[in-house]
Amino acid sequence: MIYLRIDIHCHIFSEQNTTKFIDKIFQGFTGYGFYKQIKSELKKVPSVEADSMFEKTLAHIKNAGLNKVVLLPLSLRENLLVKEWSELEPNIFIPFLNPPEKKSYNQNLYKYFSDQIESIEYRGFKITNSFRKKKLNDPILKNVFKVAQDYNLPILMHTGYPPPGTKKNVLSYSNPFKIEEFALQFPEVNIIIAHMGYPWVDIALSLAVQYQNVYLDISNLTYMMPNRLKEFLLRAKELIGLDKILFGSDGFIPEMIEMTVNLFEGVDFLRKEEKSKILGENSGELLNII
Ligand SMILES: [Zn+2]
Fold first, then answer.
1. If you measure from the C-alpha of residue 239 to the centroid of ligand 1, how many angstroms do you get, rounded to a whole number?
2. Rounded average pLDDT over 254-275
3. CATH number, residue 190
4. Does this model's pTM top 0.85?
5. 210: in domain
């Protein structure tokens, strides 16, 4: 069987997401290791010139050798962009839905979600409620879990640290430990803990040991902390094996999709078959596309 190569954690890019944009958002971080790592790795990835950001992103996805990319919206507005991109290239993009996460949307949420899922065929949910001062066991998420259960959809939750420079106290709300309630209550809903829950990797791994429906993505760790990633993956392998570990890019510009795939493929501490599991086989099974 030929397995697909899948990125399960990619965001939508707008025209402003260029290499200059990286310098701009990380002004003041020039001495930081992650910034140096991104800058030096990006030198190895030639920027594709294209007519639109959509075309450019597709070109970098192709260069990375990826077959499928899950698009994760961060707001209601981005839900529509994700829908647009996925309709333009349905063979590659897999749309997830960011549900309303504020109390003010609390009318008939179940109906809202099921209507969205049925009309657009979103294939999962992306939860970013820790950016909105809500913990990962917030009651507003209960309806999302109900829909996910009824429609057999995974839920990818932002956990752990936010991107550097985020001016919000996200860490106060994003300890993956809080996921336990939902993991237990909805055993049929597969939950993906983003960024392996860093800095709570041990908690994330403990949840994955305890609950069959808990998965971990390695998004952004390839460029934020490649040395710790080695330790995290070897620890995961020792404890739960590698079947529940999923590759994600989580870049700021399309070039970073290619960059993160290159970084992951270059690791010397996993066998080729182990890398293929993480870089697609596991996500393919989870998303029912193998
Ligand atoms: Zn992300």
1. 25
2. 97
3. 3.20.20.140
4. yes
5. yes
